[in-house]
Design a protein that fits this description.
Blueprint lengths: L13 H35 L4 H4 L1 H24 L1 H20 L4 H15 L2 H12 L5 H29 L3 H5 L2 H14 L13 H21 L8 H23 L13 H21 L2 H8 L4 H26 L5 H18 L8 H28 L6 H40 L3 H5 L12 H32 L2 H4 L12
Helix pairs in contact: 1-6, 1-7, 1-9, 1-13, 1-14, 3-4, 3-5, 3-10, 3-17, 4-5, 4-6, 4-9, 6-7, 6-17, 7-14, 7-16, 10-11, 10-17, 12-16, 12-17, 12-19, 13-14, 14-16, 15-16, 15-19, 17-19
């Protein structure tokens, strides 16, 4: 079947573009709202299911792994079904799986249903990007991505507030029920305002490429998630996971490089701007969702604030991101993107460093200011790197490019959560061992300490152990924040390789 877009303009009139942008907003916001609302509810869910922090992290990682595995599938499917039809199917599946998640009675059910939900969510971001790229002329892509980022960050802003309120006053299940009205609105707006298009003559589905890439992603995630608990490569299981992931990556790489009609068109990786964008988006996913799984627990468990307060703090990042994305869309407008990206990196790395210096009694308003700064950096960073990634790319490669762009973010997210949790566990154990040396019973008897700290009493020993565990975990969180600040600083050399050549006449 010929490309239905080939005989029509590559963009829509201004009025139609406006309504397309409006329709895209809930598609991005419902995903952000779901993810960040869940992050606030995680501590409560952990208690309800009597799970460890490693076990409960699968509520986030199962969703993200599924999204990473199935995301490339949407590049192929959009060519066969078209952008609009596939987007409607995706939203319908997301609604159904959200209902299943909200009725989960065990941790296993919750993780399985979140996996299904993640599989459908995989198509939301790449399909939304395809719609915007087709609707807007190339010179307006920065503004279009700014609008899309604002929609996503609206969900990021509302998600923590809604999640915190519902978790504190009702139940964690209402976090998922609250997503239903947004998804219904997304379905209606897409059905009414998104034009048909995107159907091209697609090759037969590349099952070998799908299987090898899925194996690579799945076992990489299992290795990262279980590595700390199984003492990494001292465990034969972890060695097997690593080997299977490496084999999957190798087979997929060779297959994509040598075969015809592959799962992902290898030409997308040959574009320098797009490849740099993938690396930066990966790092962004590592940082954004990694912190989403850490900061709410710090605020609730170590600073003593309720879930509602944690939700309000996390919402501040959404506000900052909307401001940052709007500023970035205005600053670009055909200009050199590097100053805007640098501004975003400085804001993000600075905010993470400030978080690594907080104390348990730090004012909640101070934390809010740091999170707003971080959100501003995310918005200022996301818009230019996304626009640059697609500026010089052949429109025929957009279906594969949009899914790879979203896949890079997802992989960064899932890998980031696993690594940060592993580092947290390792650092907590290390700090705990160091603190234990300084609270030996002989030393405590020489000091004036509270009665409840008496190491000769069972209750005193228990109280001391709880205190040490809590302090060690808090220091572990601070180390994670510091690690993310360093990672962001390491991205600066890539900024000088970026460009936004507006003179290229790409459709």
């Amino acid at each position: 079947m010929p490309d239905v877009d080939s005989k029509r303009p590559t963009h829509l009139p201004a009025k139609e573009r406006f309504w397309v942008a409006v329709a895209i907003v809930p598609c991005g916001s419902m995903q952000g709202m779901d993810t960040f609302a869940v992050s606030v509810a995680i501590p409560i869910m952990q208690g309800n299911f009597s799970a460890t922090i490693t076990e409960i992290s699968w509520v986030l990682t199962s969703y993200l792994v599924a999204a990473a595995i199935f995301m490339p599938l949407f590049g192929w499917a959009s060519k066969r079904l078209g952008r609009k039809k596939l987007l409607l199917i995706t939203i319908t599946g997301f609604i159904g799986s959200t209902l299943l998640v909200s009725t989960s009675n065990t941790l296993l059910e919750l993780v399985v249903y979140r996996f299904i939900q993640g599989a459908f969510s995989a198509g939301l971001n790449p399909l939304a990007q395809q719609v915007l790229l087709a609707a807007y002329p190339r010179k307006l892509h920065p503004q279009a991505f700014s609008w899309m980022s604002n929609g996503r960050m609206t969900g990021v802003m509302l998600g923590p507030i809604v999640g915190g309120f519902l978790t504190e006053w009702l139940d964690w299940r209402w976090v998922f029920w609250a997503n239903i009205p947004v998804t219904l609105a997304a379905f209606y707006l897409v059905a009414r305002h998104i034009p048909e298009g995107g159907v091209i003559k697609a090759s037969k589905f590349d099952m070998f490429g799908f299987i090898t890439l899925s194996i690579a992603i799945l076992f990489l995630q299992l290795m990262l998630d279980q590595g700390e608990r199984m003492e990494w490569f001292e465990s034969n299981t972890i060695i097997v996971f690593a080997a299977l992931s490496a084999i999957g990556i190798y087979l997929f790489s060779v297959h994509v490089s040598t075969a015809k009609n592959t799962y992902i068109d290898p030409h997308v990786f040959m574009n320098r701007d797009f490849f740099i964008g993938l690396v930066l988006v990966f790092a962004l996913g590592f940082m954004i969702y990694g912190m989403a799984g850490l900061l709410p627990k710090v605020i609730q468990d170590h600073m003593g604030h309720p879930p509602t307060s944690a939700g309000i703090v996390m919402a501040m990042r959404g506000i900052g991101s909307i401001i940052g994305a709007s500023v970035a869309g205005w600053l670009l407008n055909g200009r050199d993107p590097r100053p805007t990206v640098t501004l975003g990196l400085v804001s993000m790395s600075g905010s993470m460093w400030l978080l690594s210096l907080i104390t348990a009694d730090a004012p909640i308003h101070y934390i809010m200011l740091i999170v707003i700064l971080q959100g501003f950096g995310i918005g200022a960073f996301t818009v230019p790197i996304t626009a640059c990634a697609f500026t010089s790319l052949d429109p025929a490669l957009r279906p594969d490019a949009t899914v790879m762009n979203s896949l890079a973010r997802r992989l960064g997210t899932s890998i980031g959560i696993s690594i940060l949790v592993s580092v947290l566990v390792h650092k907590t154990q290390s700090v705990r061992n160091g603190l234990t040396i300084h609270i030996a019973p002989e030393r405590l008897r020489e000091l004036t300490v509270p009665e409840s700290w008496n190491p000769d009493e069972q209750s005193g020993a228990f109280h001391l152990n709880r205190l040490v565990e809590k302090e060690a975990e808090f220091l572990g969180f601070l180390f994670d924040f510091q690690l993310m600040a360093v990672i962001l600083l390491c991205l600066f050399p890539l900024v000088f390789l970026m460009r936004l050549d507006t003179k290229k006449n790409v459709k």
